[in-house]
Automatic annotation (TrEMBL):
GO terms for biological process: methylation. It comes from the Eukaryota. The keyword Membrane does not apply. Belongs to the methyltransferase superfamily. This is PABS domain-containing protein. The keyword Methyltransferase applies. GO terms for molecular function: methyltransferase activity. SUPFAM superfamilies: S-adenosyl-L-methionine-dependent methyltransferases. InterPro entries: Lys/N-term_MeTrsfase_sf, SAM-dependent_MTases_sf.
Length: 426
């Protein structure tokens, strides 16, 4: 959820973004040499757009009313910067190579051409941003099969993966495909997080739970998410044949999208998950209470479905309240204009109660807080060597951040995000 429901929050976001793009961050990016603009936060003005809706050069590519509390679900397209010319050529080449494997008799016909790139922004009720994705459009020349849309699986508007240093799972094994990691994503949006996870972890199977079929349709129709067969969604007759295999090369086979209520899905699911990501808000920016009620069935069932040794749960909290994160109850002198603001401390304590260690870190340019609850016993109960519990946990996380950053080839450094507003939940 990338809501910018308040102009106060949006103005602060730009100021915090400027500080986030510090010389140290720039130097770190230069050292690792990430792609030109995939996931580079200095391009925020491109994908962020106007505060209250589509800006200049934007047009609506999807619009439909939801029956699941999300109001009007729409997707707007914005112009995007182009990758370097050599990258463009490389992409066309691997598309053609995949095409030749699928159609070995095509020879030189039906050459793949890239039309361009766009930012696609999903909104609820026209003014609240649900998710952002960068989409590539391409086609096969001399072949009337329609246009292909491919979401770029390296762009995350919220750096979720910076929570991974707290996970004791062997990430190198999962990246190489030697281990079979199981991941659950509650809340689909445009599908950017599941795509990044399936792309980075070749040994991962990703289950996605989305209650609203309109949101799922928008991601497939207009945001370049693979057209997976999903019960409850109509087939997409306009999608070119073999598009998934051509664009995704098997990544789509490890993605499973379920149209279901998260509470019901978790109650009936037989999987045990290594990682769980939760980002579930409706059109009124409400995080359903049943997903954070400490005594409710959802958390009790989820507790049993998270790996008992290294299981990690990451929750996106959309809140303008920073005081409540530290466990300080809100007072009348603190104005909260986002619904979750007055409940953040309760949410944090509920997840800590069920999963052990919990901490939060602020996303520096959005009104978002990342809550992480994990079962890493080495971090949760290790010797503190004279350090405070907070400093001990933070030190452990920072010591693993470089490993995670390089193992996953992240387009952003973990270190600065973990340190930003780090708070251990009491």
């Amino acid at each position: 959820m990338l809501r910018a429901a308040a102009s106060r929050c949006a103005r602060g976001a730009i100021r915090r973004l400027s500080s986030a793009a510090s010389p140290a961050a720039v130097a770190a990016g230069a050292r690792r040499q990430p792609p030109l603009d995939e996931g580079d936060w200095s391009y925020h003005r491109e994908w962020w757009g106007e505060d209250e809706g589509p800006g200049e050069g934007a047009h609506t590519v999807f619009r439909r009313h939801s029956e699941h509390g999300n109001g009007v679900v729409s997707v707007s397209a914005y112009p995007a910067s182009r990758p370097a010319s050599d990258e463009w050529t490389v992409t066309e080449r691997w598309l053609q190579e995949r095409n030749a494997r699928i159609y070995p008799n095509s020879f030189g016909a039906n050459q793949f051409k890239i039309l361009g790139y766009q930012w696609r922004v999903m909104r609820f009720n026209d003014h609240t941003r649900q998710s952002v994705a960068k989409v590539m459009a391409c086609y096969r020349s001399s072949c009337d099969t329609g246009m292909y849309l491919m979401q770029q699986p390296h762009c995350l508007a919220v750096p979720w993966l910076t929570a991974l240093p707290c996970c004791s799972y062997d990430l190198h094994q999962a990246v190489s495909g030697q281990n079979n990691m199981k991941i659950l994503c509650i809340g689909h949006g445009g599908g950017s997080l599941p795509l990044v996870l399936a792309s980075k972890f070749r040994g991962a199977v990703v289950h996605i739970v989305e209650i609203d079929p309109v949101v799922a349709s928008a991601s497939i129709d207009s945001m370049g998410f693979p057209s997976l067969p999903v019960k409850g969604l109509p087939p997409e007759p306009t999608k070119p044949a073999n598009g998934n295999e051509l664009l995704w090369g098997g990544i789509h086979d490890r993605l499973f999208l379920h149209i279901a209520d998260a509470e019901d899905f978790v109650a009936n699911d037989s999987n045990v998950y290594d990682l769980v990501f939760i980002d579930a808000y409706d059109g009124d920016d409400i995080f359903p209470r049943k997903l954070w009620d400490a005594e409710g069935t959802f958390l009790k069932n989820l507790e049993m479905k998270v790996h008992p040794v290294h299981g990690t749960v990451v929750v996106n909290l959309h809140s303008d309240s920073e005081l409540s994160v530290a466990g300080v109850e809100k007072t009348s002198s603190v104005d909260s204009i986002l619904p979750l603001g007055k409940h953040v401390s309760q949410v944090c304590r509920a997840y800590k109660q069920h999963f052990g260690l919990a901490f939060t870190a602020a996303v520096p340019w959005l009104c978002n807080i990342t809550l992480v609850a994990c079962r890493d016993r080495a971090i949760a109960s290790g010797a503190r060597l004279g350090l405070s519990r907070r400093d001990f946990v933070l030190g452990k996380l920072l010591s693993k951040s470089n490993m995670v950053e390089h193992a996953l080839d992240l387009p952003f450094p973990c270190l600065q995000y973990i340190k930003n507003g780090f708070t251990l939940v009491d």
